[in-house]
Amino acid sequence: MSQIEELRIEITEIDAKIIGLIAQRKQVSLQIGAYKKQHNLPVLDSAREALLREFHDTVCEEYNLAPSIVAKLFELLIEESRKVQQNER
Questions:
Q1: Number of Cβ within a 10 Å radius of residue 2
Q2: Average pLDDT over all residues of the chain
Q3: Looking at residue 39, what DSSP letter applies?
Q4: CB of 43 closer than 8 Å to CB of 89
Q5: Are the C-beta atoms of residues 85 and 27 closer than 8 Å to each other?
Q6: Per-residue pLDDT averaged across 17-42, rounded?
Q7: Which of 46, 49, 53, 88 is nearest to 70 (CA)?
Q8: Backbone CA torsion sign across 58, 59, 63, 65
């Protein structure tokens, strides 16, 4: 097997882990949605989302990643979390 094939296998394995973590995140979002419904809280929590963005930027610095790329990714994940939580209502 060539080096590029081995590296591509490694990428595929990493992608599978990322997908698993996204699924795990969705399950937690479902639980948050249920909690918010039970406690009559709004789905949108702008303060929490702002804190997450700050956290993501900090972690990006630690890993030398462009915050703009991570911000785009988490924009999609947070939007999906809102949808999941809204469906809990």
A1: 7
A2: 96
A3: T
A4: yes
A5: no
A6: 96
A7: 53
A8: negative
> Within 10 A of 84 (CB to CB), how many other CB atoms are there?
19
Q: What is the pLDDT of residue 55?
A: 98
From the CA atom positions of the chain, what is the Rg in Å?
16
Res. 89 pLDDT band, cuts 50 70 90: low
Q: Copy the structure tokens of residue 11.
A: 């990428």
CATH number of domain containing 70:
1.20.59.10
- The amino acid at residue 74 is F
HSE-CB at 2 with a 13 A cutoff on CA atoms is 3
Total domains in the fold of the chain: 1
**How many residues comprise the chain?**
89
And the tokens for 64?
A: 């030398």
DSSP 1-27: --HHHHHHHHHHHHHHHHHHHHHHHHH
Domain that holds residue 8: 3-87
